[in-house]
Amino acid sequence: MTRYLTMAVMAFQSLFPVSVFGLAVGQPAPDFVATSTQGPIRLKEYAGKRAVVLAVYYKDFTPG
Amino acid sequence: MQAFQADLAAFESQGAQVLGVSGDTVESHRRFAEQHGIRFPLIADIDGNIARNYPGGRVTYVIDRAGIVRHVTKGMPDNERLLDVLKGLK
After folding, report:
1. pLDDT score of A18
2. Best residue of B59, B69, B70 to probe chain A, by most A CBs closer than 10 Å
C-alpha cells in the first residue's frame, strides 16, 4: 500500500517543475553563476572542496 | 544574515562556505554587509534565477561537497542544527 502511495506521489510530482514542490534532500543542487559582494560566484566551484550553506532570504536590512 | 555572521567561525571550522542570497543589488548588499559586519558573500539574485531553483522564500540549504542537498530549513535557520548537519557530513 505504502509503495503504491509513494508511486502515486512520485507520478504526481513528475507532472510539475521542481519549483512547485521545492528542492528536496538528496537532490543535486542546481548550479548558478551570480555576482556577489565578493565578486562572481559559481556554486559548482565549491564541489569537492567545501560544503555550502546557501541561505536564501527576502531582503537586506531585515532581522535574522 | 546577522545570525550567520555571529556564528561564521563555527561554520568555517566545519569547512563550510556560507552564502547569502536575495534579490537585492550588490550595492544594497555592500551597505547591508558593512552595517552588520557581514564577511561572507552576499549574492545579488536580481533576475530571480536562483530563487526559481531554490524556492520557498526564506530557506536555508546545506549542500555537501558532492553538490547534493543534505538539509533544508524553511523559515528562520537554527545554526546549532545546521552545524550538527555539517558535522554529520564528515
Report:
1. 43
2. B69
